[in-house]
Write the structure tokens for this entry.
Amino acid sequence: MVNETDQPYRPDYFPIAQPAARDLLRPTFGRSHDVRGGNVKHVRSVAWSCDGRRIATGGEFKELLFWDTKMNIDARASRSLPSSSKTTVHNGHVGSIAWSPVDPNILVSGDKGSSAGGVIAVWDVTSPSSPIATFKIPGDVLHISFHPSGRHFAVVCPQRNRDEVFFYWINTIDGVEKWERRDDVALGGASMDMGAEEINSLRFTNSGKLVCAVSNDGSINAWLYPTHFIKQEDEVVEEVSEPRIIESGPSTTPSTPKLPAEEEATDAEPVKSREGSREGSLENTREGKDNAEDDVEMAEGEEAPKEGEESNNEASKEDDTATAEDRKDDTVTQGGDVEMTEESTSQPMTQNLSETIPAPSSAAPSRQPTPPLPPPAKPSEKEKKKAKQLQRFRHAICHSASLLSLAFDPQGKYLAVGGQDALLSMFDTRGWICERTFDVCSAAIRHIAFSHDGEYIALGGDDTYIAIVSVYSGATVAKLPVHGMVSSIAWHPRMNWLAYSYSGKIASPIWHIVHQET
């Protein structure tokens, strides 16, 4: 562990920003306290409770432990969640944990690395036998962040195309408060707008009005977050009206002008068409065919007509004779190409076939009525209600490389971001202007954390050390050596104690706590 000294010759050295100018002692950090035992495998996450009396760790082997800081922090003082006699609810290693900022007994944990999907568990450490609420999500849990009110928290779930963020809150049902997933708002997923294909880190602002995230395109994004319920607008389902059945109607094609002879014949009886019968006519039905066969047999004289049918036969013969005369006149008066001088001898078969000829094209065609369409299926309530995407407040690309981490100053003055380019940028939360850039790392910055008073900021990632930097002077206060990639860092909420863990080739699971001496 190296404590950096003041360097007046540096270009960014400002005497007014030094600790002595503000009646503060020069900060120094002692040796780190190694916590061994308790965990079976590597420690993935570390977090302090809001009052600083408890600290929790999440491990690879579905482990979730917490310690009481009043006692000695060692393996014997650790307690597991759930208790040792219960089966854990997690499917993979616990990669993310977060304490409530207002209730020191509420802890939220999430796992990843399991094909069965992720599990989010809400614990009350005063009754560690089982979680008070559990939720399943379709992917891993990358990050958990609490709202400043302690009644909301967000979970980042990586997806193939676009990462998705799920929001949870305390909902009062019949006078009982329960943790539930919000179905009225959403962030990410397939319906997300421009940018933010990958949400690498997410935080709520100190006021709780905005939720901010950094993306792999080097952008900082902010959305307005509503703490109240958003009334969902049901989708308007257009009802398809049943088609009106039209049995007959005017023809859409222009009709051929009629000759005087045709008009006289039409007044007597509509002239049959020569194109043959269509579907739906009487002759194509079974009853029509049977009647036609009976007419043919009666014309051949094999069977005598009955007494009751004589009048009908005579009327049909008169109709056939008139039809034959109309056909003759029609043929003679056509363009002169064909002249029929001899009267065609109408045989019974011809007379019967003439009955099967439908009306001319000028008349309305006969067709079968269109069957009504089935009514549309009514969507279920879940299909009707879709979560509304959060309204984007700001989208600014500030780095040329992917951004991996962000953190807000406890005083609400600064927003710090870091990423693959090994630079730490400090933005003003009012104007969103970059005020300063820290070049203290040589590899990707994956974790950032402010101290409780906002004086220091700790950053770590792929480097061989964790750097503690003074926010106001820009000087590197200390460098804590690590032997692997940093997996988590967290400051004590009331003192300058820094807990951290890293994944490396070590004999036993271990995590560390370092204290500020002066």
About this structure: The chain has a mean pLDDT of 76. The longest strand covers residues 164-173. The CA atoms of residues 60 and 485 lie 15 Å apart.
